[in-house]
Design brief:
Strand order of the largest sheet: 1-9-6-11-4-3-2
Number of domains: 1
Structural class: alpha+beta
Number of helices: 3
Radius of gyration: 16 Å
Distance between the termini: 28 Å
Bound molecules: N-oxalylglycine, manganese (II) ion
Number of strands: 11
Amino acid sequence: MSGYNTVVQALVDEGKFVWPGFLNPQQVAALRADMDALQADFRPAGIGREQGYQRDISIRGDEVLWLDNDAPLAVPVLDQLEELRQAFNASLYLGLVEFEAHFAVYPAGGFYQRHLDQHRNADTRVVTFVLYLNEDWQDSDGGQLRIYLDSQDHGRTQDVTPHGGTLVLFLSDRFEHEVLPATRERRSLTGWFRRRPV
Ligand code: OGA
Ligand code: MN
């Protein structure tokens, strides 16, 4: 199971894991440069899928660019995430057959209201990951990921500051979450490990 024991165990015990330093600052800078080069291809994010798809900036304000496995990124981050998918699969028998990922950019003031990541009509998303790609982020810049914990936790929340290189993973059907507005542009690589549709 290699070096992923801690994160696999955390997913079993807590349903989530925060991993500061998953990428180092040089890797973050390289991925930011990739994003800059692809800037023209970003599109406003929507909510829902197929007929239910719509854009609503009062719900989410980010622009996204979906990646495929051949994406020529400066850092083999998709390979690392693929290894992680395999580690989860081998240990947890989650039947995770694939993953999808997109870059996301929230302009200053942008946010994403409280939501669950599973689509109502196609709940194949099992694990959500978010990898932050910001430089010199301060708590006072805002933009926290606010995770709503289980009812056992009496409605408490956990805030994650989007420091560059931090990876967050959580079970997609378990935790509602939101993105708080930030005072500056906020970047990430976000995706989902999925199981096969039934
Ligand atoms: C999402 C999302 C969280 C974040 O894209 O579904 O909730 O911290 N992102 O960017
Ligand atoms: Mn989400």
